[in-house]
Amino acid sequence: MPGDGVPGDAIDYPQMIAAVDRVEPVPRRIRATLAGAVILDTTRALYVWEWPGYPQFYVPIADVAADHLVDERHPQRLKRGMTQRYGLRVGDVERPKAVRVFTDATLAGLTGTARFEWDALDSWFEEDEEVFVHPRNPYTRVDALRSTRHVRVELEGAVLADSSSPVLVFETGLPTRYYFNRTEVNFDHLVLTDTVTACPYKGKTSGYWSARVGDALHADLAWVYDFPTRQLLPIAGLLSFYNERVDVVVDGNLRARPKTHFFK
To answer: For residue range 65-85, what is the model confidence (pLDDT) as tens digits?
Structure first.
């Protein structure tokens, strides 16, 4: 979070937005697989912002493996034009309603492109790096920087973490996240859970912890990425906390709890 917060003066962090229906070329090779088969492989994908925040991939139908498409004979007019719906089949694996091909689009450049349901495919890749949840917004920046600032995390008077060597993660549209070495975390208050989440920019989490303070259990307050994406390697194995739900003191200054789309 930029600057020193003042208790009660919380900053509201809205999701970053772009103009709906904005279309841009994707400069990266995009691939996706299902049951071990490559379903699409293209260097001609388009970013299309269907809603603010992040885009979707639209792929030329010529770059889609036609032998895995199942014509569901379901034409439909959508906001962006006429489409034909297809399912996917790879051996015994079937994914109905997986893709819509635009046969007559209202946006320039979209006719002849395919828009896949993200979860209909097993894996997505930008170049050779796997991408999770949804395409990355090309205008979002994420940096992990080592620091010597003194950061302490508290909850209802209990100290959960204390460090003079944290890693700070700055992500467009989100408050600063503080990552701690495990030796700087008080696990006496933490309870491991089964929660797993994924982030397009950081990867898939390896663990979550709830915090027990007194008789209260605060669910899923902390997380770790043991194998983050290449850009976020400095946070590998380190724990971070939702500063929307704990008290963070930086260099002796209590930061206000931010407001984000995660917790309103």
So the answer is: 999 999 999 999 999 999 999
